[in-house]
C-alpha cells in the first residue's frame, strides 16, 4: 500500500497551488510541509514535469541566504567538483545514509532529554543552547571521529570494488596493469 504524495502545482507566474487544500501557498508553506514530514511532489502545471527537487533546492537556497548558512564555501565547491566524477552516483546515497544516521543520533539525544526533563519545550531549548555552548567541541570531535570511520569504510569498499573489477576483467586478455607503467 503506497501513500499518495501531496501534489503542489507550480504555475508559469511562479505561484504554487496546493491541490489538497485547493489554495495558493508560498515557498514557506512548502517548507512547513517538509518540516511536518508531508510527502509531497511539485509539478509544473503546464508540462506536468516533476520539479520537486528544484523547488526543494530553492528552499535550501533561501535558508542559506537567510541567516547562519549550513554549507561552507568548501562544502559547496566540493559538491560542484563531484559532478561528472566516476563516483558521482555514490555521493547521493552516501550523504543520504550519513544524514539518516545523524537524524537517528539527534532523535536519541531528544529522547534522553525528554526522559530527564520531560516535555517542557522551553526548558529543553534553553538547555540545549547551553549544552551546545559548552559541549559543541566534544560533539564536533565525536562527529569527526564518525566521519573518519565512515571514510575508512568507504575507502575499503572502493578497494574491494577495484579488486572485484580486476578479477572480473582478468579473463578478457587485457594486458596486466602495473604501477610502474604510470606516467
Automatic annotation (TrEMBL):
InterPro entries: PHA_DNA-bd_N, PHA_reg_PhaR, PHB_accumulat. It comes from Paludibacterium purpuratum. It holds the Pfam family PHB_acc. This is Polyhydroxyalkanoate synthesis repressor PhaR. GO terms for biological process: regulation of DNA-templated transcription. Signal peptide: none annotated. Residues 7-66 form the PHA accumulation regulator DNA-binding N-terminal domain. Residues 71-110, 123-162 form the PHB accumulation regulatory domain.
